[in-house]
Amino acid sequence: MALLIVLLATFVGLLAPLGMASTDFVIYSDPPTALLPGQSFQYDLTPQGIPYGPASLSMNHDCDLVLRFHNQKTWATNTTGLGTDCYLTVDSNGEAAVKHDMNYPLWSSGKKSVQGSYAFLLQWNGGLGIYGPAIWSSSNPPSLHDAGNEHPNVTTDYVFYSYSILPIGKILEYKNYKLVLRDDCNLVLEDTATNEIRWQTGTSSPLHDCFVTLDAQGELFVKHNRRDVLWRSGARSTPFLYIVALRYDGTLGVYGPQIWTTKPFW
Ligand SMILES: *[C@@H]1O[C@H](CO)[C@@H](O)[C@H](O)[C@H]1NC(C)=O
Ligand SMILES: *[C@@H]1O[C@H](CO)[C@@H](O)[C@H](O)[C@H]1NC(C)=O
C-alpha cells in the first residue's frame, strides 16, 4: 500500500507540469498554465510604440527562474540545483511558485489574496507582476484552437495597464489574436488565422476620435469626443493598478489589482 502511494505521488508529480499548457509572457491560474522546465521567452517591450526592452524570463533546467533586462540578470529565485523538472505556476490565491512536484514549492511569491483567477506576467518595465482576481472577461467562449505555432514571432503588446490611453488602430496582439479599435470606433477581437470576429463592443461614432482606456479601478472604456463614454465593461474594484490581457484562449480579461511585483512602476 505504501509503495502504491509513493508510486502514485511520483506519477502525479511528473504528469502535472507536462499535462499543463505552457504560455508565453503571462501565466494564468484558470485554466492553469505553466512556464515549463527549460522554457524561456524574450519580449521586446514596446509600451505604446516606445522601445524599452528587451526582457526575458527563463525556467532553467537547473531549476533557477531567471529574469533578464537588457541582457543583464536582474532577478532570480536562487533555486539552482534544488530540484529537477521545475516549473512556474500561479494559484487561485494569486501566489506564484516554482515547484518540482505537485506539492512542494521551492520558491513562492509569498503573497496570498482572495480566491479567484490570477495572471503572472512580465511587465513592460522589465519586472514581474501578479494581478487579480479577474473582475471582467469578454463574453466569447474560450477557443480550443491553438494557432500559436503558426505565429511564433508576434511579440508585440499583449497587455495594457491602468491609465493607458490607446487611439484608433491595433490595441493588443497575441499570436493569432488581435484587438483592434476600428476607424468607426468598434472595438473588435479578431482571430487572424480564421478571419473571424470573436467579440466586439458594436460601438460606432462618426467623430473618428475614439480611444480605449482602463481606469485605476479596472473598468475598461471606449470613449470619444474627449471623454464621452461609448461603451464600458461595468466592473470595478479597489483602486490601484490593473491590466487588460489578451489571453492565449482568445478571450479578453481584466485582472487586478496588482498584488505582488519585483519592480514597482512608481
Ligand atoms: C537571489 O539572490 C540575489 C543575490 O544574493 C538577491 O539579491 C535576491 O534577492 C535573491 N532572490 C530572491 C527571490 O530572494
Ligand atoms: C521567426 O524568427 C526567426 C528568427 O528570427 C526566423 O528565422 C523565422 O523565419 C521567423 N518565422 C516567421 C514565421 O516569421
TrEMBL record:
Residues 1-21 form the signal peptide. It comes from the Eukaryota. GO terms for biological process: response to other organism. Keywords: Signal. SMART domains: B_lectin (SM00108). Residues 32-143, 157-266 form the Bulb-type lectin domain. This is (wild Malaysian banana) hypothetical protein. It comes from Musa acuminata subsp. malaccensis (Wild banana). The lineage of its organism: Eukaryota, Viridiplantae, Streptophyta, Embryophyta, Tracheophyta.
